[in-house]
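Q: I'm teaching a short session on how sequence maps to structure, and I want students to see two examples side by side rather than one. Could you give me a first protein with its sequence written out and its structure tokens following it? Keep the formatting plain so it prints cleanly on a handout.
A: Of course. Example one:
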Amino acid sequence: MIAKVIVDVASKSVDYKFDYIIPEQLESVIQPGVRVIVPFGPRTIQGYVMEVTAEPDAQLDVSKLKKIIEVKDIQPELTSELIALSEWMGSTHVIKRISMLEVMLPSAIKAKYKKAFKMKDDIEVPSALLQKFDKHGYYYYKDAQKNNDIQLLMKLLKEDIVEEKTILTQNITKKTKRAVRVIEGYHPDEVLAKLEKVIKQYDLYAYLSEEQHKTIFLTDIEDMGFSKSSLDGLIKKGYVEKYDAVVERDPFKDRVFEQESKQQLTEDQFKAYEAIKAKIVSQEQETFLLHGVTGSGKTEVYLQTIEDVLSQGKQAMMLVPEIALTPQMVLRFKRRFGDDVAVLHSGLSNGERYDEWQKIRNGRARVSVGARSSVFAPFKNLGLIIIDEEHESTYKQEDYPRYHAREIAQWRSEYHHCPVILGSATPCLESYARAEKGVYHLLSLPNRVNQQALPEIDIVDMREELSEGNRSMFSKDLREAIQLRLDRQEQVVLFLNRRGYASFMLCRDCGYVPQCPNCDISLTYHKTTDLLKCHYCGYQETPPNQCPNCESEHIRQVGTGTQKVEELLQQEFEDARIIRMDVDTTSKKGAHEKLLTEFEKGNGDILLGTQMIAKGLDYPNITLVGVLNADTMLNLPDFRASERTYQLLTQVAGRAGRHEKAGQVIIQTYNPDHYSILDVQKNDYLTFYRQEMEYRKLGKYPPYYYLINFTISHKEMKKVMEASQHVHKILLQHLTEKALVLGPSPAALARINNEFRFQILVKYKSEPGLLQAIQFLDDYYHEKFIKEKLALKIDIDPQMMM
């Protein structure tokens, strides 16, 4: 028997299936989807079995094939569906298959490789080094570096006294807890007869033998009132033993979720629910675009359709755009479905994520809630996939391997013959255009579920504030509105899409601005650490007391970040309790949920935050939302800037007045006449959609054209320019005249981490030769990168143009 294996080497040159002989003793356990350990050149590495066949390919010499060394799994980690998906992504998106397989799996499953020096048999190592080798004869490279032994070891390597090895280790660590069990081989009645005179030992043994089908922990024994001496006595007599029982890491083990019954649906909700239910029952693939205003009850539609899926014995997947939204969504799902819910997101530890993933794989959880990568959850019988806030750009992975969760969801829904729901108050233009064409089925929820009016939205022209002498970042209207809410003991949400203390530092005499030495961008000032930081490469430096350019002492922070706003708010409203939510305050595990819980409990008056507070918050006491600067995204050099501004402002405005108390939204802007801001005020998605579509048509942008962005980068400008011209030439050779090839030109961020960046943008409708061109360029520049570190990034359907 032959196994076709994808090996754990992220190189284009080995991105195909290798044939390995399956040893006879492993034939019964090796199947597609299991991990195996195989010899590969001089190394021993991990691989994934993609196929099992009776014979190798005809052109291969069987005598030269190597044998599989070990199988790591009893049950496959990869389903046949995920294997097929990895093949499809590899062929259509120019992604190495090992990279695709590894993004599908929790990091705990991935192999780790450690370089080490190994003692050779029968050859003596100098005594000074001997004690540094472990019991298996290895001295790890990392430890040798730390101990300054590398030079000596390299000398021994040349003298053939030691050899270099790569050691394969696993990330998986099982959590264990001390437990007690009866020792097999004794008949309980016989043991109990011998213990009749030792009453406490008798009672304990009787309990353990009756409950031996369960795991009994040491702590359970103590809680039951049995003494340590009774247990020790039974262990000494050889009737029971202690052992390490594997326990599941449950991130919600200390939480109690009150059962929640389903709510009465409104007429609009019921129509949407019935349309989706029909496809669930008939097991047909269809994509529904659920367009509902903020507070229209989209989540309740999700929950009730999932109930129908579970009643059919199937499974459901729920995606949210970022982990800040997960706590509230998890709460609702856990209240409705209890332990049937598994949670998958980057805020969990590796062990917790692995255990949640295993719950899905083993069929113990039939519903998943998670961020982007949870789209690969190992369900075998999906009945529904839901993508909430489907317009969010975070559903696209920007790093390699690049994929869009929406596209993966579509593929999986076709595989399982099940519907997909794309939910949003502000659908992306591409999705709404598909709904208008009939590619998607449009469902509308035009009203809030409790008949509560949408909040009143006021636009403040900050130019007028400035002309009236108000240089503060709080307009007169916003200041008064905040004070009114504080007096009423109501809550306020303030939104600013900029973290840090100040945008940059500026010398008021010569105009000098401290720049990152590695990137073409100014440094951001962070007050808590008193450092200037680059948010792209991580560079940081101490802020200067005087200008390095002209030696003036008039160098100050300019612009405002969340840290600065927090300070100004505290000065303006001394008694206000402020909770700040941004990347800096939510970096620790569980910080998102902790801060939101504090605010929900009423332990904060003002919630100040970046994009992570714009969506999902549903608290009855929020009656005011303030947008401090609506122009932050509007001025970005990206064709989606207006769309993202409209979406973000609509989402954050939707946090106000969702329950009985009326809501107000104040948007501060220097562009009060911009259509994206005016349409937010009118809550008029269709008018915005029509106007933005006109601009897209004129500019030949999606949804009228598809895009591919090619970014070439290197430390030498000359090499970048030469490679850019070469990429441009290859594209022109493969594409028709209907395609538009723009560039090469410097990227909006022309240098990041000391690498110059040029871009070429291709706009097209249908290009049969495009995939061939992409594959050629990917192969060619893979070799170039190995030899010269000249990188080509190919981004299909780019979400970020910077």
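Q: Perfect. Now a second example for contrast.
A: Example two:
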Amino acid sequence: MSANSATTAAIAVDDLVATDPASGDAAVQSHTAVRQPVTLSERERAIVSALAEAVMPAGHGIEGGGSVTIERLERFLSGGGRAFLNGVRSGLWTTELWTVPRYGRPLSKLPLEQRSEALIAWNQSPSRYLRWWLRAILTPLKAAHFDDESMFAQVGCRYGSDPVLQTEPERWMQQVTNGREVEEDLELDCEVVIVGTGAGGAAAAHELAKRGRAVLMLEQGDYFKRPDFVSRASAAYQKMYVAGGATVALGNIAAPVWAGRTVGGSTTINSGTCYRAPEWTLKRWRERYGLSMMSSGALAPYFERAEQMLEVAQAPAEHLGGPARVVARGAEALGLSHMPIMRNAPGCDGQGVCCFGCPTGAKRSTDISYVPKALERGAQLISAATVDTVDVVAGRARGVTGRLRSGRRLTVRADVVIVAAGALLTPGLLKQSGVCTTSGWLGKNLSIHPATKVLGLFDEDIDMSTGIPQSYSMDSYAEEGLMFEGGSTPLDVTALAIPWVGDRFMDLMARYRQLALFGFMLQDKSRGEVRSGPGGMPLILYNQSREDTARMQRGLGIMCEVFLEAGATRVLPMIVGCDEVSSRSDIDKLRSMKLRGGDFEITAFHPLGTCRMGTDPERSCLGPDLEAHDTAGLYVTDGSAIPSSLGANPQMTIMALALRTAERIDDRLDRMAALPPSNRYREPANDVAAPADSGRSPAVGFEFHETMSGSYVREDEPERQRRLSFTMRAHAPSLRRFLSRREVTIEGTVNAEGLATDQPLSGTMGLDLLVTGRLPYAFDFVSDDGDRYRFAGQKIVRATRLRQTMTTLPAALFDESNRLVARGELFFDLTGELGKFLRSWRLIKTDS
């Protein structure tokens, strides 16, 4: 399969699929992993029973923990991997031995009263690390116990959603290859390869496919359809979330940071909230990062296109849900601005399971919108495909290498590479590829929109299990960095959100239908870092600043006040030392407390900024068009490109920037196609027409001479190094023309051991030190055997490493069919050649 011609707008299906494409079977996704039954040992079962009995005691009108929890936990564990199982087992033994120093006996041997006493003391420990440790141990236990149809029935809530019948695969599913089923190594060619199918990757894919480009999307996750969305949190975490939903930011806080790993990325598992970037944030970008082109007016056309594709509209009144009703009442009493949220779900019926995959298909996540539209336009998609490296040749991204879930290798050659794996995974891929690293900012500058919530208990029916989970907002404090948005959760997830144990925990859970949850997120000024952990999973480091902690404390006070005004009988901010308020004086106490970041219950849903854009290559990884400063043809169109915390849900901003970048990529590809072959795979010169010489003759130009030498290695003989050198004359016949093009003509001779002996060369060299810092070399020559070859290389000059970057030229050789045949590296000899090089510079006069 080939897309070297600009007329090739689609990738042949039979090149992507190892099985018979005519049957259509290869397009059918079979991604349901076989669930391996888990059986705990008798001692472990005893620990589970004893622990569950103390954490979730009986006698509150709903079934308590105990022996019944054992079977539920084993069923829950069967959906996870071995590492997860081992972690749970370690946690069980930790709790078993925890009581030995104080009570002289393991937990399972203690009477219930002492077990409860020990766990409550542990849960209220002054050490945040001990509290977090217990929370991690109890999370699977609580989730397993409450994720059961009988528990939902006992509190009067629906479990799951209506079953969806399997339908005939859509026609465009013929464009989809399941990486679990491919039986051969794949080598593919396209114009644009896109890593990731979330907000940025899918939007760019559709825009480029619509413009006739040959686009290949690669997605690490599976392509789940409506019948796969069973509306259960545990199943969704295991199948559709990065690291099974276990990604946690650690520092002076411990905050889960959720991201999607499925076709559609995080858009498949978010609440569907759609807001544009606030103008005050864009103003900050212009002032701090030199992004003068980022204004509300300039981005408006891209926002409008994304909103049309997603059919964004205000959440309908009939599905706002109980929490919205009481929040509106409290906000109105306090004179706060409040309104339904803007969403991308026309026809939503309010089942309340948006974060686990929309079972009706109403939510216009990219798996429903941009991805199918791109496939209809001829794009291709391979799911269950992990990209290991971006392949770089002579300073330019030329494809990716990875592996399929079937174990087969994947190699993609492309003119442009777009990475859109998300702010948690993109930095690891780029760092492993050795790109976007020159500024030192890759993986840093992480913002997460840290969020917390308040629970209100009312003497009226709320029922968070129905209605849109995030349907309502209050925006009076948005410019202060506090955005209040709903966050209703089903019974089993609510159990995890309440960090209590014992009787008061079960009393609250029994009254689930009277609970309302509402939260807010910070436009954080704190910054963290993401690194690659074991197995390539993200390791997130984040410390919340005192300023952000103070703002979080302020936000909790406001939210508690809203619930009290709405008539709540109990308000639960879940702060260490103040986990319940019931009066104004309690709120005053909350506001006066000296709190630390670890005292809050924090979650995060919007990781951003880990490969940020900017105009200064020393302070950013990407330029304003989202192209890497240090690697031509490499673009990043996910949340990692966002330079700072947004202060609004980010999917619309990511999409708008991706659409803008796709336009520029399309234009760049057109310009590359118009160049002669020797110039095609370097950074295209500025194509502003050179001004006429106004009749003046002769014109003044300049010339210089340069010699570089080094070695090269053939792709078919990688163990042998061969000598490579060239001597060239570079000249610009007109200074005026040079200033418009930043390019000189080169001619000379090349010597490549075993290939060319003093053979003439001709081509061009870019000279744009001030703007891009790039010096691309591109020339053609004929070998001793009469075959044509093309040399492509590029220096990327950095002020911090001037000597090294000015004297080192990574390069590659291509044959006449544009096949890579060799890679090399050449050097300028400062000691022996510098004087000669400087003396060679001179002005020249030419006829106009």
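Q: What should students look for in example two?
A: Point them to this: Residues 63 and 437 are 55 Å apart (CA to CA). Also worth mentioning: The mean pLDDT is 89.
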